[in-house]
UniProtKB/TrEMBL annotation:
The gene is Dvir\GJ20282. GO terms for cellular component: membrane. Its EC number is 2.4.1.17. It is found in: Membrane. Residues 1-23 form the signal peptide. This is UDP-glucuronosyltransferase. Pfam families: UDPGT. The chain crosses the membrane at residues 489-516. It comes from Drosophila virilis (Fruit fly).
Length: 529
């Protein structure tokens, strides 16, 4: 009898502790063909499938190699949209090494162009058209999962299927998100994602930060959104009674999953609906291929891992820079493992190994890796921090400067401007990172903080997705600030009111004083007579 009560109690507490979710049907839209972005998407979709959910995904790249089984349906976008072609065409960029010279305004314009082009390319696909024009919408899906990256037209699918939205941001927090989440991001200490600043800004840096943040907010509202609205209208007009505006749709997002986490992000105002899940793409290390394993095992003086990521290709590097890197590497006792996409590199120093593709995270996990030479992308930076490897940053564009500045400020990286790298500077920086213990100590401390979470990142992402499904959205987490007019939100009406009352009181006082003075004069005048 007692035993029965006990087991009932255990059963009861298990039920209370683990909220039950029936397997859900999730519509995912990952239509932007950014290779690095798919590190996060793939990890998330895998995790959802492993948790028993069914996912239908509009996919820029196939996840076929993941063997996700019958609960995964892929609507592949074909052919893959070559957005770098648009970039080269519109901005006179020859190769990506030139992006270091592009200013922020051109960069924002570039993102908008590639966003609009890739969105429309995906919307034209027959599979996507079938989804848009489907007759049956009731109960087909439980949730729309979308990327928070210049793909807003797809949010209309949530209106079509009457489902809540969760978005994922591969770039982590961005200042313009305050407009969708109804909060205020102080430009005084939150640097814009593309500015090479930190959270300690000088006066002039604050001026520039304010200007670029305001510029982006206004540009989105008055330039970008009308263009995205036109695309949304074109493709959803025939099927929706009223096509919602992008500005409205993005305030209906229930939860936003952000690829960032303390201490790699600026401490900043946020709302419960913004959930940091940075590091989702990092799994326990797998064994390395034999040749790499023995190359690194034998690196008794340590090894350097060099990769500029999936977009910037080392093979496009100007010839004199290539020679410079090879010369410096050849003069060091460390071994160098370099992601290099071309076999025609010529004679290599004996301590350098190149490969077209390298299992980056697994390599960074090798204890002999002493330095990671990186472009400072968010995924790579997180891997470097996770495995506590000091970094030599060569940032090119986007958030890479910011990530590297954060790392420099944290004392675990040295950042170099690609165009000003010299032999001496490169050798000196590498030796500092290897021999000066402060870099390793700092990155170990940052790594411990980065890994210290209430829930591991993939688990956390699935928790919040299931949370939104369970509660059919999360209006209780939505900021009421989103429903105010802009002048109400910034309290301009209250400030004007107080100023007006103050001014009125002042005027009245002045008037009263004048009247008093007047009557006093009259009084004295009458007296003298
Ligand atoms: C697919 O999802 C269903 C629930 O929707 C689940 O019962 C089944 O085990 C899943 N199949 C696989 C292969 O994971
Ligand atoms: C080690 O690096 C730190 C941080 O850059 C620097 O302050 C210190 O002087 C360096 N020590 C040596 C011996 O170079």
């Amino acid at each position: 009898m007692k035993l029965q009560a006990l087991s009932l109690l255990i059963l009861y507490s298990a039920l209370v502790a683990l909220p039950q979710v029936r397997p859900a049907k999730i519509l995912a839209v990952y239509a932007f063909p950014g290779k690095s972005h798919f590190m996060m998407h793939t990890a998330l979709i895998r995790e959802l499938i492993q948790n028993g959910h069914q996912v239908t995904m509009i996919a820029a790249f196939s996840l076929a190699s993941q063997q996700l089984g019958s609960n995964y349906t892929e609507l592949l976008i074909e052919p893959v949209y070559d957005f770098w072609h648009d970039v080269k065409l519109n901005f006179g960029v020859q190769h990506l090494f030139d992006l270091t010279r592009m200013n922020n305004y051109d960069f924002l314009k570039m993102l908008e162009i590639i966003g609009l082009k890739t969105t429309e390319h995906a919307l034209r696909q027959p599979h996507v058209q079938a989804l848009i024009h489907a007759r049956q919408t009731e109960g087909v899906f439980d949730l729309l999962l979308a990327e928070q990256f210049y793909q807003e037209a797809f949010l209309a699918l949530a209106h079509k299927y009457k489902i809540p939205i969760v978005t994922t941001s591969t770039l982590g927090y961005e200042n313009h998100m305050s407009q969708m989440m109804g909060l205020i991001t102080p430009w005084s200490f939150v640097p814009h994602g593309f500015m090479p600043f930190t959270d300690r800004m000088s006066f002039m840096e604050r001026v520039r930060n304010t200007y670029v943040s305001l510029y982006e907010d206004l540009d989105r509202l008055f330039n970008y959104f009308p263009k995205m609205d036109a695309i949304t209208e074109l493709y959803f007009g025939p099927v929706l009674a009223e096509v919602p505006k992008v500005r409205h749709m993005e305030t209906q997002i229930s939860v936003m999953l952000l690829n960032s986490h303390a201490p790699l992000t600026t401490a900043r105002p946020t709302v419960d609906a913004m959930v940091p899940v940075g590091g989702m793409h990092i799994y326990p290390p797998k064994p390395l291929p034999m040749d790499m394993q023995s190359f690194l095992d034998a690196a008794t003086d340590g090894a350097i891992y060099f990769s500029l990521g999936s977009n910037v290709q080392s093979k496009e590097m100007p010839a004199h820079m290539l020679q410079l890197f090879l010369k410096v590497f050849g003069s060091m006792k460390q071994r160098v493992l370099w992601k290099f996409e071309d076999d025609s590199i010529g004679q290599l120093p004996p301590n350098v190994m190149i490969r077209k593709w390298l299992p980056q995270a697994d390599i960074l996990a090798h204890p002999n890796i002493k330095v990671f030479i990186t472009h400072g992308g968010l995924f790579g930076t997180q891997e470097g921090v996770h495995y506590a490897v000091p970094m030599l940053g060569i940032p090119f564009y986007c958030d890479q400067h910011l990530n590297m500045n954060k790392a420099v400020l944290g004392g675990y990286a040295i950042s170099l401007h690609f165009q000003s790298i010299t032999e001496q500077l490169l050798r000196h920086s590498l030796l500092q990172l290897i021999e000066n213990a402060s870099y390793a100590e700092n990155v170990q401390r940052v790594s411990r903080i980065f890994r210290d979470r209430p829930l591991p990142p993939r688990r956390s992402a699935v928790y919040w997705i299931e949370y939104v499904i369970r509660h059919k959205g999360a209006p209780h987490m939505r900021s009421a600030g989103l429903d105010l007019r802009w002048y109400q939100f910034y309290l301009l009406d209250v400030i004007s009111f107080v100023a007006a009352v103050g001014l009125a009181v002042l005027l009245l006082l002045l008037l009263a004083l004048r009247l008093l003075r007047g009557s006093g004069k009259k009084h004295s005048k009458s007296k003298s007579h």
